[in-house]
Structures are given as C-alpha cells and as structure tokens.
C-alpha cells in the first residue's frame, strides 16, 4: 500500500513520507509480534474477533434502552435472586395473588364455578334462565347510564335489536368460505370501501376488516416488516410517539421489530416531528402517529409526519382506532381539524375501530392501506399445505361472518347524517366537561382535548385519590401514568340528559372533599400506580399484572391458603 500511495502521490510528498516514518516502526512491531502465530491461527482469531464484535453490536442494537438502563435492570434482577429478597418477593406475590382471588370470588356473589359439562344438557329455557339468574346479576356497574369512561360507546336499544336480528341470520357464516357465504364476502368489501371513503382513500385504497384495533395495528406493523425484509433490512425498527397505543409494543414483541418511543411535547402531548425524525435510521420500517392518542386525546401533527414519510420514503401509519368515527365527521359537524387521512401523500395506512365510535358490537375494526401493494404484505399463504392451498387476509383463519354483517348493518342504519349528529353531541359534551375541569383550580388539563378524551392531573393532591373518590361515586375512569393522571373518554352514553352535569358535580365535590380532608389511605388502584413508577425492573410489575390475569381464569371456589409458595 505504501508503494502504491507513493507512486500515485509522488515520492517527494513530504507529508506522506512523514506519516509513513511515524507508522513504519509500529507496523514492524506488530508484525514481529504476529510472527509468533501460525497463519491459520491468525485467520481463526480474526474470524472469532469479528464474530464477537458483531454479536456485541447486535446486542447493543437490540437493547430497548441504553446500556446503563440494561445494567441497572440486571442488578435488580440478580438481587431478586438473593435468598432473603427472593423469599420476601415471593411472599408479597403470594399475598397479592391471594387478594386478587378473593376479589374475584367476592364478585361471584356466592355462585360456585361450573367445573364440568352438565351430564344432561340444560336445554334452551333452563340455560337462558341460568344466565339471567346467576350471571347477569354479577354486574354491578351500570354502564348504561354513562358511568364508564370509553368501554361501551353507545348501545341504544334500537342497535341492540338490529344487531341481534342480524346475528340470528349470520351466526353460522364464515368469510373464509367466500364461495359458501357470498353475502358476507360482499358486506366486508363494502364496509372497507365505505370506511376508506370516509378517510378520502382513492380507487387504489383498500383494506380488510379485523377483530379490533389491536389486530388492525399489528397487521399494519407486520405488513411494513415484510416490506422492510423485501428491501433487505434485516432488523426492522419502528418509530412511534410514546403516547401511541400499546398495540404497537405488542406488534414489536410478536414480530421482532425494535420499537423507539419518541417523547412528546410536555404541554400539548403531541409528538414533535423534529424529535421523531432524529430516531429514524436505515433500519426504520415505519413511523406512526395517533389521531387522537388514547391517554390524552390529542392528535399528533400528521401533516408534518406525512412530509417526513415522503422525504425518507418510509410508510406512515395513522392510528385512528379510537376516534376514527369522530374525526371523519367533525368537519361536517362544524369543528375544524388539520388533515389526518389519505389526502396527505405520506399516509400509507389508517386503522379505524368500528367497535368504538362506529357503535358496532365488539370484535370489529378496519385496517386501510393507500394501495394493494401494502395490503399484499399483510396477507399470509401456505401454498404447499397438504390441506390445500391456504391463504388468509388477517390473523384468524375462520372468522365470524356475523361480526361483518352486524357492522355493515350498524353503518347502514346510522348513516352519514346520523354519525354527524352523534359526533356533534359528543364533541359538545367533551367541550362542556373540558371547560368545567378548567374551572376547577386544583385540576389541570394534561392536554387540550382535540376530540373526545379529557385528561387531567393535579399539583395540589395525588390525582389517584380523585380516581378513588370518583369510583366510590359510581364512576369508572381510566388511570394514566408517566405522568400520573386520570381521563374520561366521552361516549354517546355521556351525551344523555344529565350525565355530563352529574359527572361535573361529582368531580367538583370530590375535589372539595380531598382538599378538606387529611391524607387518607389510598385505594388499591391508586396504591399500585403510586408504587410502581419508581421500580427499575418492570418485570416485577408484569408479574403482578399477570397474577391478575391468572385470577380471572381461576375456578377454585375457595382461596388457596396464604403462603403456599406456588404461582
Ligand atoms: C382502543 C384503541 C386501540 C385498539 O384497541 P382494541 O382494544 O384492540 O380495539 C388502538 N389505538 C387507540 C388510540 C385506541 O384507543
């Protein structure tokens, strides 16, 4: 190399000569040292070193957070293994498990679990009677009067009548067999087209129906991962605002996509496009924004995200799962919004839940794409399967045709004007509640509500105490964390006469109560959220959360004795 450079740049290049004069002794030294090794040894050593180096690089790439966070977590994990601590943690987990099981048993109201099939079937009448007498009575929360945030978005008796009648006709249908059930095949295509039209998709726009927002989001992530693979990206990464729905984390986990959570503006709770851009690299397979996000109800700046998507030629998913059926009608209802849909050239997919503000029964959502090129990557095929050439559009194999038919029927029966009217009522109610919250000086809005979610915090008291108090007044609100807060997602049920007024009055009197009393003990939910935020190893929180899931599936009629040590 030395000869090559000198011949090219001239033997009298003084700078080059000087450099080589410095380097030469060093290379000589290295060479004499390497003389001790055989050639094959040198080859093996370099291969090994490259391998270890690459592993370390991938290890760093795969870390969710930095190396420092990883080490803290490891130390915490190891210390959990110390006999003393381990025994303590086990006994705490045991206590929690015991408590959770007791809660479940209490809510069974003395009814024992069915453990086996009845040897003689109950028949129609007795079965219905059993449901009425032993199960329906377990529900205490009156969600029909608007006591619950989100959850049930609008269940009027007409819709119940309509959907159950439709269910009757389609209970046995399955769109997997499009040849047997052309009716639901046509209905699904029409639902997707109607929703694409709401979001200004052109003729190329397309999509599928899914069982819910989580499936819609995960399918889009899966599609973009395939697209990245086809471009030679081996370790795809996604960049989403930290306020994006947990379904993106689920997709990242299921499909081995690294996820970057971009912090949002502390005042608006919207992602800052410039900050988001700084997370993009050559492995980025998609970016996303929410319209609106679940925690604080603000809409990310989709117009700027679209511009970034175009500049970097990266797909952009807009999560309109929650508010899709509101934002699509807000303009017609007289409310202004920036653009959020396929009118923006960078938007490549949109998820929109029909089972939220579309008012269809649960198990229904739509995932839309700008063109079939994207949707193709969502599909799955197993063309050599002995059972036949297998293709499926979504996660499921067999699907409920009844859900498609009920969705189709709900959309058709409410119609455009119907949705505009409900949207207006909901946004008006949201603004009424927003104004009331602003007037309570101990409370602070966490963000300006763009659509139907009002989130608030307090610098005067622990906000989770307010959650507790509202729960005891019969309200079911959502707890938020990082930072702590409480929100209500306003639904059609809150637009019923007197509901919003009752909410505001209860909120005022709860705040007054808290301000006038000394600190009392926190309720369960509040206590959990207060204690978990400082633990570095979040796996222990997951352990407790999983205990809750376990308890939901528990069918023992007596709690297991405390301290059994089993999990
Ligand atoms: C509800 C929701 C989803 C998806 O939730 P599912 O429970 O699976 O329907 C996704 N994003 C946002 C913003 C949501 O509110």
UniProtKB/TrEMBL annotation:
The modification N6-(pyridoxal phosphate)lysine is found at residue 356. Pathway: Sphingolipid metabolism; Lipid metabolism; sphingolipid metabolism. Its EC number is 4.1.2.27. The keyword Endoplasmic reticulum applies. It is a single-pass membrane protein. CDD domains: DOPA_deC_like (cd06450). The keyword Membrane applies. GO terms for biological process: carboxylic acid metabolic process; sphingolipid catabolic process. Its cofactor is pyridoxal 5'-phosphate. Keywords: Endoplasmic reticulum, Lipid metabolism, Lyase, Membrane, Pyridoxal phosphate, Sphingolipid metabolism, Transmembrane, Transmembrane helix. GO terms for cellular component: endoplasmic reticulum membrane. GO terms for molecular function: pyridoxal phosphate binding; sphinganine-1-phosphate aldolase activity. This is sphinganine-1-phosphate aldolase. InterPro entries: GrpII_AminoAcid_Decarb (IPR050477), PyrdxlP-dep_de-COase (IPR002129), PyrdxlP-dep_Trfase (IPR015424), PyrdxlP-dep_Trfase_major (IPR015421), PyrdxlP-dep_Trfase_small (IPR015422). It comes from the Eukaryota. Pfam families: Pyridoxal_deC. Belongs to the group II decarboxylase family. Sphingosine-1-phosphate lyase subfamily. It is found in: Endoplasmic reticulum membrane.
């Amino acid at each position: 190399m030395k000869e090559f450079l000198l011949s090219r740049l001239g033997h009298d290049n003084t700078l080059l000569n000087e450099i080589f004069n410095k380097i030469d002794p060093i290379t000589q030294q290295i060479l004499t040292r390497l003389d001790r090794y055989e050639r094959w040894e040198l080859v093996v050593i370099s291969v090994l070193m490259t391998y270890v180096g690459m592993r370390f690089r991938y290890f760093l790439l795969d870390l969710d957070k930095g190396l420092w966070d990883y080490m803290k977590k490891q130390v915490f994990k190891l210390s959990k293994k110390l006999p003393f601590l381990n025994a303590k943690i086990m006994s705490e987990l045991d206590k929690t498990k015991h408590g959770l099981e007791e809660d479940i048993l209490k809510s069974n109201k003395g009814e024992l679990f069915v453990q086996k099939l009845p040897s003689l079937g109950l028949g129609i009448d007795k079965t219905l009677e059993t449901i009425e007498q032993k199960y329906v009575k377990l529900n205490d929360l009156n969600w029909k009067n608007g006591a619950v945030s989100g959850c049930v978005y609008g269940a009027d008796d007409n819709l119940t009548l309509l959907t159950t009648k439709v269910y009757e006709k389609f209970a046995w249908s399955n769109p997997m067999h499009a040849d047997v059930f052309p009716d639901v095949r046509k209905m699904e295509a029409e639902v997707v087209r109607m929703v694409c039209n709401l979001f200004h998709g052109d003729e190329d726009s397309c999509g599928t129906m899914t069982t819910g927002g989580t499936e819609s989001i995960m399918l889009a992530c899966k599609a973009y991962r395939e697209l990245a693979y086809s471009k030679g990206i081996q370790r795809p990464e996604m960049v989403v605002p930290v306020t994006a729905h947990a379904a993106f984390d689920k997709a990242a986990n299921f499909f081995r996509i690294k996820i970057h959570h971009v912090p949002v503006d502390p005042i608006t709770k919207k992602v800052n496009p410039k900050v988001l851009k700084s997370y993009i690299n050559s492995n980025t397979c998609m970016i996303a924004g929410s319209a609106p996000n679940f925690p604080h109800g603000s809409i990310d700046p989709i117009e700027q995200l679209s511009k970034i998507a175009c500049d970097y030629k990266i797909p952009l998913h807009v999560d309109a799962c929650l508010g899709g059926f509101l934002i699509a009608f807000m303009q017609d209802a007289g409310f202004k919004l920036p653009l959020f849909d396929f009118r923006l050239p960078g938007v490549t997919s949109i998820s929109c839940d029909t089972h939220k503000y579309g008012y269809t029964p649960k198990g229904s959502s739509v995932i839309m794409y700008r063109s079939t090129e994207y949707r193709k990557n969502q599909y799955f095929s197993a063309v050599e399967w002995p059972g036949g050439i297998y293709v499926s559009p979504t996660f499921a194999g067999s699907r409920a045709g009844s859900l498609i038919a009920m969705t189709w029927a709900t959309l058709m029966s409410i119609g455009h004007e119907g949705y505009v009217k409900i949207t207006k009522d909901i946004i008006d109610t949201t603004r009424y509640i927003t104004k009331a919250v602003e007037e309570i000086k101990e409370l602070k809005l966490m963000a300006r509500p763009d659509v139907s979610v009002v989130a608030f915090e307090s610098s005067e008291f622990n906000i989770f105490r307010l959650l507790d108090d509202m729960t005891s007044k019969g309200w079911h609100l959502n707890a938020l964390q990082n930072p702590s807060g409480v929100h209500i997602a306003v639904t059609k049920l809150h637009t019923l006469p007197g509901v919003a007024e009752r909410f505001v009055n209860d909120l005022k009197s709860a705040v007054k109560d808290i301000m006038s009393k000394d600190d009392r003990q926190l309720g369960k939910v509040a206590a959990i959220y207060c204690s978990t935020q400082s633990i570095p190893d979040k796996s222990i929180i997951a352990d407790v959360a999983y205990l809750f899931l376990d308890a939901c599936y528990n069918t023992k009629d007596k709690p297991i004795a405390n301290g059994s040590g089993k999990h």
